[in-house]
């Protein structure tokens, strides 16, 4: 027993590789060094314990205790007894930290600040996985199952970073695992003694890589490993309809801190808050409106329509090509509601990479748009495909400024059933206080519109809420309840709460994220800055469609129809004064401003929807893609059938000899090969150590052939003997028929599964592989003996000479 | 140079004519049809002989077949087994089934070489030496318990086996064809015996062990032959000149190049086998191929197969091999080693993908 140093090292490396997947989770990466250090100590303890050797459970226990000590020293030195020994205080402290870390997880979006609690969680988790890996792979000697904890570690990182971590992080994780497998295999092999390489090392320079024992298997291992990794990376990217390939191009954007101040975050809402809290207000968009008066349109990025009780998210929806030239008519917009067309030309800043296209609600058409964009009909948003973002983009949007009157809204009929069902879903875990508050606030309201107005007023005016961007956007099921209690928050809280409450009242609601209109510039254009990022509720009223409300105090503008209404008492008939420009709420366009958006970053942004859409995108694109995909499908289907097809063709060729003129001897031999291959297909492998008659006897006996089939086999064998050993040519008539007879006999005596196998996956198809291997080795031999090979060997010899010289030099 | 076996054909031919190994030169030989039996004649005659012998030797068809093969291949047969299993019976049955002259020599320590070859006696009337032929002058010679005679006597027999002639006092006497020596040897009770040295065993084409009969065969033997010798009923079923023709037919059996190479490979392999102190001689190769021809002819084929070679390899090769002491300790007998070689020597590849040189062990 040597303590199994090498596998232990590989196990630690594999754990670290998988841990790399968690790097994006927190904003500092120094924790991984800490983890690496502790992991090294833990593995070293394992090595020593195995060398002693201790029993396996003892080894593991020792490692666990060591790790606990290490964690104590690093994270809880003050509470420890003598600064080292973990007492009850330490455990309490750990417990406290872990609780806190769970809170932090809930509190922060990714990447989270590297608090002590989170670091403890990360380092501790890595150590735990490292311990399990070490125990499985080294102490108990089974590297393969060690993949499970590694996978768990990787999945946590990759899963939390939504969006998937990028392929660069996949590589260390996968490579680490392969390395572990390799080391274990080598270890196992080495117990058999010295491993002989395929060639003497002198003949092949590169062979020297695997120095020490067993260059050959290691070399093979490298090749296989590299091949597997390559396939895992490339295959999904090549297959058109499987989304989420790691190599799929995703936002070009640079990570945080990249050039041009790209705004990035994992969660649109969080990024929104970050934007609001940024010290400087960076311009993200600049636009002009054509008939002046459209300056109150909020630019919408995405709508969050799924409420899980804690927060709102964008659900994953089907996306299509952008309909040209006009987008479909907006849902629920009736002709009698006033809707003025407004033109808008937008220029996005170079540093603004967002893969949703900011535009007011309901856009009718988008022109001059470059890049790959796709359309999501439900939310009427444009989504960048294949990493397309708004970076530096210029485009023109034609939108409708929908201006319903309060009367029209008040008189709105019930929404369609399907829409109602979908957009009034409220999960059970929403605290009762939400619905109760909603009911209290809207008590006495005559209709949905009035309820909506009262909700808006409750937040904006009467409820005593304060706008405060310092508040954490928060999560957890009681986030809304907490907000209702503390009455401090920013647009996210207001919009979330209002939308949630509207849903409890049975009004279809969702949350839109985007920008407020921004500030007018001297040249008449409008400038939208990162501080204009915003979120607002959209409520649905039949006739007007999705209608914007503005519950956030001191932000944006309240739509005319809501203000006008405020006085209440809708005078049913009374036409509300047509909106002046300032206040005109384009009802439908939920136009508001500015939530700057987001992100870009792979993980990003726009939430699940964008990614899902990107994925789907591939599927339904151009007909060419479809054709390519169909072709690929066909190829994939045909691939397993290749052996069968090859077999059928070969059989026809071998037995068809009677028709094609050929030498009788060749025909006889072809028939013989066909006979032995047929037997092979049915499970009787060919055996070079048998003469034809022995082989035929064996087939007859093994397959229990009788009667004509057995005789036919004998006849073929005799013909082969004559051909091979008798003087003079011998005729080969009727052999094809005999072979068919034997095949029929084989088929009849085989079990159903064997029959199926012989037909679909004939064993003798291995000949293709063997032939290929033979050709390859022949080519390889030719190459080696050719000028290239000679040159290569010379280079290798020279390098070795230099290395040897260096070694002796050093020694001297 | 190994001398080819002397011809058994026409008596008048000069001996020096065939010093070259016969079978390599034979390809060009032209044989006319009246000179040799056709294959079908050969098989029917051989079948008759076989049935006749099997009537005496119960339950040992392979042994009988091998004896016939050796006869047709112009070889000599060494039967080695414990007493009482029918060694002598086999030899006698074979001899009697053929209408040939038969002599039986019981080897004893005091047997003299001249008893075998013959002696010149001075004829006072003619005032000349007259040659009295010894026991060897017969077509089938049965040498019983050959290991009991002194080496000097043994070599007299073995010399005439190889040369097919006897030289006494400067006169050379050709032996009549067909000529076959069937010697028996008793492997137990070796005290006071002179086991055949390797060089002499090499002269026998094949060695065969009778082995005990199966209980059924033994039972049949009791029923059929209780009380009288089965040999008494035996009538000759083939004439000597028929045998000569058959031997001639066997010579013309075709041996393909790949089969010859296989035989050579096999014999060569014995010379490199780690368990063998002594491998087989080139004469063994010659005997192997010749026996394979005879076996092919007996099966009604005019060409030999690797199967023939395989079937005969143990009988033809095993008695010429000397296992090392180590192998003997491990109970690795020569038979087992030959079987092992049969497994390991590559057969001719029907599809000829390997270059010829690659086939060697």
From TrEMBL, chain A:
Pfam families assigned: DUF4129, TgpA_N, Transglut_core
Coiled-coil ranges from the UniProt annotation: none
Transmembrane segments: 31-49, 56-76, 108-133, 140-161, 167-183, 224-247, 626-646
Composition skew (Pro residues), residue ranges: 569-578
Record's keyword annotation contains DNA-binding: no
Source superkingdom: Bacteria
SMART domains hit by this protein: TGc
Stretches the record annotates as Disordered: 547-620
Domain Transglutaminase-like: 483-553
This protein's UniProt keywords: Membrane, Transmembrane, Transmembrane helix
Keyword Cell wall biogenesis/degradation: no
Classification via PANTHER family: PROTEIN-GLUTAMINE GAMMA-GLUTAMYLTRANSFERASE
Protein name as catalogued: DUF4129 domain-containing protein
């Amino acid at each position: 027993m040597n303590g199994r140093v090498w596998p232990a090292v590989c196990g630690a490396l594999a754990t670290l590789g998988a841990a790399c997947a968690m790097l994006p989770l927190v904003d500092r990466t120094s924790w991984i060094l800490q983890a690496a250090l502790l992991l090294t100590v833990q593995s070293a303890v394992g090595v020593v314990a195995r060398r002693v050797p201790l029993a396996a459970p003892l080894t593991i226990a020792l490692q666990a205790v060591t790790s606990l000590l290490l964690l104590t020293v690093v994270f809880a030195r003050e509470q420890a007894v003598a600064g080292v020994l973990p007492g009850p205080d330490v455990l309490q402290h750990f417990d406290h930290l872990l609780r806190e870390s769970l809170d932090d997880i809930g509190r922060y979006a990714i990447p989270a600040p590297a608090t002590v609690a989170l670091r403890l969680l990360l380092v501790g988790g890595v150590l735990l996985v490292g311990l399990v890996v070490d125990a499985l792979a080294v102490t108990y000697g089974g590297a393969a199952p060690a993949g499970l904890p590694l996978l768990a570690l990787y999945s946590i990182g990759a899963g939390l970073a939504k969006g998937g971590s990028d392929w660069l992080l996949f590589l260390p994780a996968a490579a680490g695992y392969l390395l572990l497998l390799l080391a274990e295999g080598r270890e196992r092999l080495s117990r058999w003694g010295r491993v002989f390489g395929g060639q003497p090392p002198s003949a092949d320079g590169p062979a020297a890589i695997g120095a020490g024992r067993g260059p050959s298997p290691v070399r093979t291992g490298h090749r296989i490993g590299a091949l597997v990794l390559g396939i895992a990376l490339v295959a999904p990217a090549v297959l058109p309809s499987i989304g989420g390939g790691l190599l799929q191009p995703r936002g070009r954007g640079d990570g945080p801190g990249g050039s041009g101040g790209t705004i990035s975050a994992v969660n649109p809402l969080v990024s929104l808050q970050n934007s609001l809290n940024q010290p400087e207000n960076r311009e993200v968009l600049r636009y002009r409106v054509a008939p002046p008066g459209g300056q109150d349109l909020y630019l919408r990025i995405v709508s969050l329509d799924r409420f899980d009780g804690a927060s709102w998210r964008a659900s994953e929806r089907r996306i299509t090509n952008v309909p040209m030239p006009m987008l479909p008519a907006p849902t629920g917009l009736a002709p009698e509601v006033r809707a003025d067309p407004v033109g808008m030309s937008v220029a996005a800043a170079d540093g603004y990479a967002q893969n949703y296209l900011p535009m007011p609600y309901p856009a009718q058409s988008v022109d001059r748009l470059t890049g790959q964009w796709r359309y999501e009909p439900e939310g009427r948003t444009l989504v960048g495909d294949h990493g397309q973002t708004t970076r530096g983009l210029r485009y023109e949007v034609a939108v409708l400024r929908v201006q319903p009157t309060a009367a029209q809204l008040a008189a709105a009929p019930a929404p369609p059933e399907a829409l109602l069902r979908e957009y009034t879903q409220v999960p059970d875990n929403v605290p009762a206080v939400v619905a109760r508050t909603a009911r209290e606030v809207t008590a006495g309201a005559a209709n949905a519109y009035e309820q909506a107005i009262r909700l808006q007023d409750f937040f904006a005016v009467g409820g005593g809420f304060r706008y405060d961007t310092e508040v954490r956007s928060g999560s957890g099921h009681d986030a809304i309840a907490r907000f209702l209690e503390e009455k401090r928050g920013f647009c996210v809280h207001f919009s979330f709460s209002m939308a949630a409450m509207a849903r409890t009242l049975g009004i279809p609601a969702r949350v839109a994220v985007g920008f407020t209109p921004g500030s007018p510039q001297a040249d008449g254009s409008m400038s939208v800055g990162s501080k204009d990022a915003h979120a607002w509720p959209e409520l649905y009223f039949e006739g007007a469609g999705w209608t914007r409300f503005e519950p956030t105090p001191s932000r944006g503008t309240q739509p005319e129809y809501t203000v006008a209404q405020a006085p209440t008492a809708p005078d049913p008939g009374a036409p509300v004064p047509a909106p002046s420009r300032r206040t005109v709420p384009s009802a439908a366009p939920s136009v508001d401003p500015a939530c700057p958006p987001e992100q870009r970053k792979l993980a990003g942004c726009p939430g699940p929807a964008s990614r899902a859409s990107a994925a789907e995108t591939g599927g339904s694109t151009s007909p060419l893609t479809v054709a390519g995909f169909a072709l690929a499908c066909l190829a994939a289907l045909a691939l397993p059938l290749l052996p069968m097809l090859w077999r059928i063709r070969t059989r026809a060729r071998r037995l068809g000899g009677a028709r094609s003129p050929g030498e009788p001897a060749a025909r006889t031999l072809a028939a013989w090969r066909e006979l032995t291959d047929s037997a092979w297909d049915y499970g009787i492998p060919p055996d070079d150590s048998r003469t034809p008659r022995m082989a035929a006897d064996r087939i007859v006996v093994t397959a229990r052939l009788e009667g004509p089939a057995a005789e036919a086999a004998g006849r073929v064998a005799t013909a082969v003997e004559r051909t091979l050993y008798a003087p003079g040519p011998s005729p080969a008539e009727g052999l094809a028929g005999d072979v068919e007879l034997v095949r029929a006999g084989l088929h009849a005596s085989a079990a159903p599964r064997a029959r199926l196998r012989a037909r679909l996956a004939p064993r003798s198809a291995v000949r293709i592989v063997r032939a290929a291997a033979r050709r390859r080795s022949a080519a390889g031999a030719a190459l080696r003996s050719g000028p290239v090979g000679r040159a290569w060997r010379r280079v290798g010899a020279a390098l070795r000479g230099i290395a040897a010289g260096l070694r002796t030099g050093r020694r001297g | 140079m190994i001398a080819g076996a002397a011809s058994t054909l026409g008596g008048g031919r000069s001996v020096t004519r065939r010093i070259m190994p016969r079978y390599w030169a034979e390809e060009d030989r032209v044989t006319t049809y009246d000179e040799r039996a056709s294959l079908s004649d050969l098989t029917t005659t051989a079948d008759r002989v076989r049935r006749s012998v099997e009537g005496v030797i119960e339950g040992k068809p392979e042994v009988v077949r091998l004896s016939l093969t050796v006869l047709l291949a112009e070889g000599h047969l060494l039967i080695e087994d414990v007493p009482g299993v029918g060694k002598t019976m086999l030899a006698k049955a074979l001899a009697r089934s053929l209408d040939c002259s038969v002599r039986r020599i019981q080897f004893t320590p005091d047997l003299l070489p001249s008893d075998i070859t013959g002696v010149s006696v001075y004829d006072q009337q003619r005032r000349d030496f007259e040659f009295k032929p010894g026991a060897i002058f017969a077509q089938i010679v049965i040498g019983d318990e050959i290991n009991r005679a002194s080496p000097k006597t043994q070599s007299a027999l073995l010399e005439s086996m190889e040369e097919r002639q006897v030289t006494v006092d400067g006169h050379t006497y050709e032996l009549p064809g067909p000529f076959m020596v069937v010697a028996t040897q008793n492997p137990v009770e070796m005290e006071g015996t002179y086991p055949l040295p390797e060089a002499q065993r090499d002269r026998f084409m094949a060695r065969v062990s009778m082995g005990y009969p199966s209980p059924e065969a033994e039972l049949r033997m009791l029923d059929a032959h209780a009380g009288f010798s089965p040999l008494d009923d035996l009538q000759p079923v083939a004439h000597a000149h028929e045998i000569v023709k058959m031997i001639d037919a066997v010579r013309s059996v075709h041996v393909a190049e790949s089969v010859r190479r296989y035989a050579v490979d096999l014999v060569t392999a014995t010379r490199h086998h780690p368990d063998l102190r002594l491998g087989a001689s080139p004469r063994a190769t010659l005997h192997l191929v010749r026996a394979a021809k005879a076996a092919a002819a007996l099966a009604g084929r005019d060409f030999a197969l690797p199967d023939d070679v395989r079937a005969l390899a143990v009988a033809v090769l095993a008695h010429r091999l000397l296992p090392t002491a180590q192998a003997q300790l491990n109970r690795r007998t020569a038979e087992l080693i030959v079987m092992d070689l049969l497994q390991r020597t590559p057969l001719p590849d029907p599809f000829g993908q390997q270059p010829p040189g690659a086939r060697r062990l």
